[in-house]
């Protein structure tokens, strides 16, 4: 059988290269390790499922926390999409038939999370920082510039909170109001020239620069009144990107920094741009710190950052409570992100909602007319009378909470009580280490607290409303420090815009025949990037006469 000869020869060659007995044992060893590894993973997965009494929810191979889902989207049984927390809203709870649902992944081994849309369970979690601390490893994305208040716990957090707290004072809020009015008058006079009709292709073209300008003035005492849209404005010496541009890229592409090693940043134009933007933001922040330090203490340094630096440079009794430069950068970045991204996106969603719900805009307009009858500049004292503006923001934040998941974990073996729509209750064992996700879209679209959750109804905030079922700013000792800052800025922006301009959805021929439902779906379309981000909100602003 001559044709079998080459085969034999090949076999002999292999035998010469790899002595057969040892090759076989290597293969067998590897295979058994592999099998043992998977059996072990499976064992942990089963243990995790049993540890919470198989409480209903999603079961996947990979954990939802992994960045993988940025690339692959949702694969049933394998991976939940990065947008899971937003697109699914209350649905997983409806399926589970409880206002808590679980997700368990085989990898990392037996990773167990309980998602909460139950106001009582959430209240229990937010009211004890010791029993339910933050999983600081999940905040790596926010710590790229340095340690900071949002991504820390225990003594480190206390130190940051102590130094930053004085910056968020009533005095600062008034400063925010006045700064916002100045920024808006500048928009009307210089940028819009009081034209009768202004259209934007995406409202964030307007809200991002407004939020950044308010932050620049009220947050950093900058003399810049309105950061111009036009990118051809001269850059500061030593820079290749405007601050706005760099910040925008950082917010969009920050996750690249987490998944790729540094040497890979040079491989692809988008990565190179991200690397450049990071360097730019860092340089801008270092310049701010330097300038504020050399500027010295001025009389009216009520801006956020001035107060932060004052607190840091003059720590009072406890000399040890000062921030290193990295910690200063890290916290500065958090202010920038909170004050820029979350605020601008919320303003954008607010305009979108008012454009779609004209009758709500009219109610708001009538109250503004009543509170500010003449051409009088609105003052900080007027804010308390502008209840409808506040209700509009709360309703926007209910529907479009910028932070979709507020993660905590259980520091001990404990028990949480889940409720169902028909009032039943069930105890869930919560083993130490279980992740607890306060899930704002789940809570905010829970019909038990918010009837007709898909409808924009600011009026629901004017009577009695379920305070514990509103978690846009988190709550308890780890609640948002910038809430008043944002509310003040937001009410001033909204009041001035609606006083002078009527907001409508921009007419575009390709959408001429759409129904209200289609239009709403298009305008409200959003994605979870760093915070919830509107997709495209084309608007017209027409001058009221
Ligand atoms: C619409 C606007 C805003 C919303 C919805 C919002 C929401 C939140 C949420 C949900 C948290 C908790 C995050 C977590 O535990 O993971 C938080 C924390 C925080 N926010 Fe905001 N925020 C907003 C604006 C701002 C602004 C304008 C600032 C500052 C200028 C700010 C500063 C902070 C700080 C410092 C913390 C950390 C508090 C701590 O951990 O002790 N936020 N915010
Ligand atoms: C500051 O820290 C040093 C060493 O870490 C310690 O010896 C000193 O007592 C601390 N001072 C105060 C005021 O806490
Ligand atoms: C809006 O929500 C905040 C809590 O985040 C609350 O203090 C305030 O009273 C609410 N205002 C209105 C008018 O709904």
SSE map:
Layout: H1 5-17, H2 20-51, E1 57-62, H3 69-72, H4 84-87, H5 91-96, E2 100-107, E3 111-116, H6 119-126, H7 154-164, H8 170-191, E4 197-200, H9 204-220, H10 243-259, H11 269-295, H12 304-313, H13 325-356, H14 358-371, H15 387-399, E5 405-409, E6 414-419, E7 425-430, E8 435-439, H16 440-444, H17 483-500, E9 501-505, H18 516-523, E10 526-528, E11 532-534, E12 539-543
Helix pairs in contact: 8-9, 8-17, 9-13, 10-11, 13-15, 13-17, 14-15
Transmembrane segments: 20-42
Pathway: Secondary metabolite biosynthesis; terpenoid biosynthesis
Family: Belongs to the cytochrome P450 family.
| Helix residue percentage | 40-55%
* Global Rg: 27 Å
* Largest sheet data: 5 strands, mixed
CATH class of the largest domain, named Mainly Alpha
Determine the number of helices (DSSP H or I, runs of at least 4 residues).
18
Contiguous runs where pLDDT drops below 50 for at least 5 residues: 1-5
């Amino acid at each position: 059988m001559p044709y079998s000869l080459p085969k034999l020869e090949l076999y002999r060659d292999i035998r010469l290269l790899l002595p057969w007995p040892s090759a076989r044992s290597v293969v067998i060893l590897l295979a058994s390790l592999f099998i043992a590894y998977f059996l072990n993973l499976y064992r942990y997965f089963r243990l995790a499922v049993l540890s919470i009494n198989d409480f209903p929810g999603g079961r996947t191979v990979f954990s939802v926390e992994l960045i993988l889902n940025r690339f692959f989207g949702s694969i049933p049984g394998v991976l939940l999409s990065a947008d899971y927390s937003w697109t699914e809203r209350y649905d997983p709870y409806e399926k589970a038939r409880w206002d808590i649902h679980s997700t368990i992944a085989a990898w990392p081994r037996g990773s167990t999370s309980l998602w909460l849309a139950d106001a009582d369970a959430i209240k229990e979690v937010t009211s004890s920082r010791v029993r339910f601390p933050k999983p600081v490893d999940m905040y790596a994305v926010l710590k790229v510039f340095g340690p900071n208040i949002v991504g820390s716990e225990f003594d480190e957090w206390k130190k940051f909170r102590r130094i930053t707290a004085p910056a968020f004072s009533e005095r600062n809020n008034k400063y925010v109001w006045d700064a916002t009015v100045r920024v808006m008058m500048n928009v009307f006079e210089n940028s819009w020239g009081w034209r009768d009709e202004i259209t934007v292709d995406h409202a964030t073209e307007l809200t991002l620069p407004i939020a950044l300008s308010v932050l620049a003035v009220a947050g950093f005492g900058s003399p810049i009144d309105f950061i111009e849209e036009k990118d051809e404005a001269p850059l500061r010496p030593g820079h290749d990107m405007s601050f706005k541009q760099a910040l925008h890229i950082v917010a969009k592409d920050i996750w690249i920094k987490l998944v790729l090693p540094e040497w890979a940043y040079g491989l692809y134009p988008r990565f190179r741009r991200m690397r450049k933007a990071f360097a730019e933001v860092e340089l801008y922040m270092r310049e701010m710190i330097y300038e504020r330090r050399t500027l010295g203490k001025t009389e009216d340094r009520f801006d956020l950052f001035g107060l932060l630096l004052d607190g840091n440079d003059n720590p009072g009794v406890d000399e040890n409570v000062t921030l290193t430069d990295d910690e200063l950068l890290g916290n500065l970045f958090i202010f920038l992100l909170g004050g820029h991204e979350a605020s601008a996106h919320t303003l954008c969603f607010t305009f979108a909602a008012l454009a779609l719900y004209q009758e709500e805009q009219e109610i708001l307009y009538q109250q503004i007319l009543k509170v500010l009858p003449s051409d009088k500049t609105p003052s900080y004292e007027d804010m308390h009378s502008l209840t409808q503006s506040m209700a509009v923001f709360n309703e926007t934040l209910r529907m479009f909470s910028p932070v979709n998941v507020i993660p905590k974990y259980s520091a001990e073996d404990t028990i949480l009580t889940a409720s169902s729509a028909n009032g039943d209750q069930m105890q869930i064992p919560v083993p130490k280490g279980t992740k607890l996700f306060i899930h704002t879209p789940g809570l905010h679209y829970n019909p038990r607290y918010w009837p007709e959750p898909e409808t924009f109804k600011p009026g629901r905030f004017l009577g009695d409303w379920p305070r514990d079922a509103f978690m846009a700013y988190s709550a308890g000792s780890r609640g948002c420090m910038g809430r008043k800052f944002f509310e003040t800025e937001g009410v001033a922006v909204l009041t001035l815009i609606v006083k002078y301009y009527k907001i409508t959805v921009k007419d575009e021929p390709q959408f001429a025949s759409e129904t209200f439902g289609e239009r709403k779906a298009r305008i409200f379309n959003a994605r979870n990037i760093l915070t919830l981000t509107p997709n495209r909100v084309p608007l017209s602003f027409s001058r009221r006469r």
